[in-house]
Amino acid sequence: MVDGLPLEARVILLSAGGDAASPLLRKLLAQNIDWPLLCALADREQASPILWAQVRRLGCGGGPESDPLKRLAMVSEFSLLRLQRRLYETCDALAAGGIDAVLLKGAAVAHTAYPRFVERPMRDIDLLVEPEQADAAKQALQAAGWVRRSNSFADDAYDGHQHLPPYTDAKGSDATVELHTDLFFEGHPFRFSPKAVRARARRLCVDQHVLLVPDPLHQLFHACLHFAYGHLMSVSAWRTFRDVAALAGSGSIDWKEFVVLARESGGATSCYWTFRLAQAAAGVTVPSDVLDGLRPPLPDTALRILERHFSRGLMPTCVSCPSVRLRNLMWRAGVFPGGWNRGSVRPWGRLRRFRGATEPGPRGLLQRLPRHIRHAAAAPGYLWSVVCAPTSLDVPGSGRKSTPSGGEAGQRDSGTAGRRDSG
What we know:
By secondary structure, the protein is α+β, with helices and mostly antiparallel strands. It is built from 18 helices and seven strands. Strands 1-2-5-4-3 form a five-stranded mixed β-sheet. Strand 4 and strand 5 form a beta hairpin. Helix 12 crosses helix 13. The radius of gyration is 21 Å and the shape is globular.
């Protein structure tokens, strides 16, 4: 189990691990749970239906304190059934327009690694289309009842981005559709293309709807890169770990081929950290020889320090790294040890496009200065805690609590905090 995270965050992450994690999950749930905080974190991670099912199965709920989680789970499952219907309507509309759209992320994994669609929570539908078909795809979306999201960022924020500005459901749900023309934003360092995904995609017939889904090996690889590189290991941890567990346990992954793909595509370290954190936080099983084949060229001591640091950033809690610069430095040391291609785009630089606007010039700097001073003052103590010794937060049942999404700890991320990846 990861060190340093508050009890409620550990419960959420561990619920992604399946039956193998049940004994430890039962033990954690027997402690003094802050149920409002647990519900807030579960809602943020979209974990409520799965967490509630596990709480009920383990006999750890049933009292009035768990009723909010039960209600969240019921609402989430209802929304997922509605999203499933809208997904099929959308795929039919695209197919009618001669557009072969490949399901990505949650929509794809839900149809290949889970027995039922509702067992893979999501709020977005991610579809990969050919760039030259993007305009026709937008027209098909509008015909299917999707409209450009009114509170979306300006169009130029999406220049060079992997997907177009999102569309929201005109029929009243809170779902969105993102049309992808690439897998990652412009300037990424990976040799992994949409063409390769399309070449191995296969068609499924589900309730008389024809769906195009990537090969499970590509789904797993994309999930790792999306989490570790695209979101700096600080967004969508629960869903990523659960997808890793489902895909790894499906028997459909050729692990030797996966290691070759990861190394040749430049994504080995992103996969390594995704798997290592999934093991540590959720008890997900990945073959040891796979981890050895993906391991960064760093000593064991450095890997343990980085694991402790990365694990504390999996959720926006009071133990997250207080310094953006330190977090970026640690991420770079773990994911691209020894440097990287100088022409590559740093993900945090790209994500700044989606941050809230700040006032430019000296006035804006003065407004931000107190926050920078606080973060700089806290950084040495944080670094000491991850390098040298456990703190009181490493003790199960510690009374220290966290904030689920608000406050400084939840907002200081350079683009990922406060911004949910809902697929």
